[in-house]
Amino acid sequence: MSTQTVKAPQAHHESMFEAVLARLDAAAKIMNLSDEVALVLKNPSKQVKVSLPVMMDSGKIQVFEGYRTVHSTHLGPSKGGIRYAMDVNSDEVMALAAWMSFKCAVANLPYGGAKGGIKLDPRSHSVGELERISRAYAVAMKDVFGVNKDIPAPDMGTSGREMAWILDEFNKNTGEDSPGVITGKPVAVGGSLGRDAATGRGVMVNALAALKKMGLVPTAVTAVVQGFGNVGSHAARLLSEKGVKIVGIGDHSASFYNEKGIDVAAAIEYASKNDRNLRGFTGATEIKNSELLISKCDILVPAALQNVINEENAPHIQAKLIVEGANGPTTPEADPILNSKKIICIPDILANAGGVTVSYFEWVQNKAGYYWTEQEVNERHDLKMDIAFEAVWHNASFYKTSMRIAAYITALQKLEQGVKLKGAY
Ligand code: NAD
User: What does pTM read for this prediction?
Assistant: First the structure.
């Protein structure tokens, strides 16, 4: 988790949920999805907004807005993270919840999709305040969450620490020990080995699978990674361990480029000692943040914010392959530009599905009360990601479309079955 306060750029679509619907419509048209199924999936099944009055350290009460949207439960209980950020709002949560439904379907997980968040800037609160806010949110959502109902996890601005508080508060309120009600927990309280690095690992597995299709070998390519939090730092580390030369990294505080390659382990160590910021790192030349995404590389991994690849910078992107670690980093307006430049883009709902895949493994382990080794987790993760990648690649060539639309088609094929088989009232 980072403590960044930077706001995400805005897309031309007024609403992020509309941007999701634009992709859903494009995929639905190509695969001939029934209007009824599309209608069901365009309407999230549950939206909850709560007010959380919490005592600040100053002795004054502050009220926070909390959200949870369950988009669908057609393929299983809903699953999705909790985000702490100032730009959390009902539209964003709705879009992220829908993406979770598609992501779980693409990754073949027995889950629907959900997302939650609290509108706050984590940097401006003490640990004690964050704990009280998290506990208040858990109580307010105790009828929404459930081990077989709706299972949250970390997202931007939250980590295992918040998951442990929310689990503890949920358990106190229900009077039962239900570790599987939340994933992304610290290992000591029922988390899974390998969960921390899982999203970055999924990015690496997808990048390697795409390189193979492109006839490229990891040791002959370079990569730039935007975002150096959970997803970006693990993705950079794992790619470099596979021989990819990481030439650019950046976070909200600074960006760096070194054509000879950046020592990723040194950058991780530097950030860990520098309040998780890269500012001041000396292993590369500092460049402007706006230059990072358009700098020379073969693989570009946006792993920070939404809407960072847009119609302004898309024409200048030099990478051959984009692997979306972040949720929604590319605007719908940028898609056709990337397609016309023949840049292969592995979309978020496939590329960053490694996190929810290992969250699923955590939930399975919690239910069984039996825990796997890290090697078992990683092997099962890699297999699931490879299968998901192949399914999407197949649909891209079968329907002669981009990997993004093919990923939506792959998800919609599964969701369509769920909606039709479960039926309506
Ligand atoms: P994080 O909070 O750990 O890290 C975010 C990183 O982005 C930080 O390094 C921060 O400095 C950087 N950043 C913020 N603003 C920036 C800017 N303007 N320019 C450059 N960098 C900036 O978050 P995370 O968990 O790594 O999540 C990153 C993205 O990945 C989000 O879109 C999230 O929804 C998505 N994601 C995360 C997971 C997960 O398991 N953590 C899973 C799937 C998707």
Answer: 0.94
